[in-house]
Amino acid sequence: MDSVFEAKGLSKRFDDVVALDDIDLEIRPQSIVGLLGKNGSGKTTLLGQLMGLQLPTAGTSRTLGKLSSQLDHEELIHIGFVPQEIRLLDWMTVHQHLRYVSCFYPEWDRERQRRLQDELELESGAVVGSLSSGDLQKLAIILAVCHHPSLLILDEPVSDLDPIVRGRLLEFLLELLQEDRATILVSSHVLRDVEKIVDRVVCLDHGRVVTDTDLDELKERFAEWIVLARHDSLPKEFEETFILDQEISGREGRLLVDRSQAAPENFAATHQLEISSRSLNLEEIFPLLLEESEV
After folding, report:
1. In sequence order, what are the beta bridge partners of 246?
2. Cβ pair 220, 281 in contact under 8 A
């Protein structure tokens, strides 16, 4: 299979609201993709299209080689899904719910289930309706991965988990990629966690794809420069177009730059200054991507 998910000219409108606007996107097998965007950018709608939960207004989307709107049991047993709004059977215990869902999957892995319950510290006898939001997320994740999905879709999967449990989950997702040769699509506002596991970043803004690139390329592109004038004070403002943001104070300055357009040696020579550079993390890069989309 050449692609796990493919969208061409995909649009979705809800009355006068444009949730997705002419999206072209392809997700290839055995990758971990971070889906980023502000609230209302279209992330959850895109995941709904991928799962076949909504019909597109225009364009097409295909999941596991089939039109997303026509997914049936043959495809769905290969998909794991953790939605943003988790709705489970409140009256069951955790054990009963896991046993119930496992009946629908011939490849259900009870050893993986037990291991995850132990690592995530989820009690089998707890009633689902009494679980905290964090424990609900744990249960939803276990339900989504124990049938060895080839495609795992996570919509804000760790927002209510404490840092220790989030760390355990991230380690497991990397193991999952190796064990099941899975493709993982994760939408999350916890960008420091996303950065630890993804190899590709797709950023949405106002229903459009504004960035679709490898994480390593993004981190290579953007940087922070700390500049120090060798003699006089720095200018009040630099005019070079590769400078995306700047703070100047006397002889020192902090610049956020697009290294794909910058020539640091020439810049240093022109302004008679010294440059100390560091790469930005994904949390720092994210607002720059949104600002770029508005230009």
Report:
1. 255
2. no
Among residues 10, 4, 8, 6, the alpha carbon closest in space to that of 56 is found at 10
Q: In terms of Cα–Cα distance, which of 270, 241, 265, 271 is closest to 253? A: 271
- For 180-238, write each residue's pLDDT tens digit: 889 999 998 888 888 988 999 999 999 999 999 999 999 999 999 999 999 888 989 99
Give the list of residues 6+ apart from residue 25 with CB closer than 8 angstroms, or none. 5, 6, 7, 10, 46, 202, 209, 212
Q: Which tens digits make up the pLDDT trace of 115-128?
A: 999 988 999 999 99
Angle, alpha carbons 143-85-43 (nearest 5°): 105
Rg (CA), the chain: 23
CATH architecture of the domain formed by 5-206:
3-Layer(aba) Sandwich (3.40)
pLDDT of residue 293: 66
- May I ask the CATH architecture of the domain 219-293? 2-Layer Sandwich (3.30)
* pTM greater than the 0.70 cutoff: yes
Q: Domain segments of the chain: what residues?
A: 5-206, 219-293
